[in-house]
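Changelog note: in this version the structure field was regenerated for every chain. One regenerated record is shown below for reference.
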Amino acid sequence: MGYNGVVCFPSFNNQSIEAWPQDRIEKISNAIDTLNPFEDKKDYFATSILSESINLQFDNEGRILITEKLLRHAKIKNSMLFVGQGKTFQIWEPTSFEKFRVTARKKSNINRDNLKWEQKLNN
């Protein structure tokens, strides 16, 4: 059986908590390992993502207990919002997310030509 939980860490892109499956953390860890071991950027990524990560197991009801440190980073006090991101999700303070959502919508509209995908044709 696979890992029964998520790996959470403070987002360094915004004021939220990143929640990733174990295999995605392993993938980014492998990517960090490919960097020159003597370059500062390897330490920066490892510190920002890996050293700040915490494995959170699901309980019998599918819940997780989020640490105080993570809650402080996201400024979550009374309520939180889970935001799907495809293979990952983020946990936000609802008012902070609403502000981010408005900005993200505007920037997505401006940059929509950058979003491309391949269509596979059946032969």
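Spot check on this record: The chain has four helices and five strands. The chain has one domain: 5-112.
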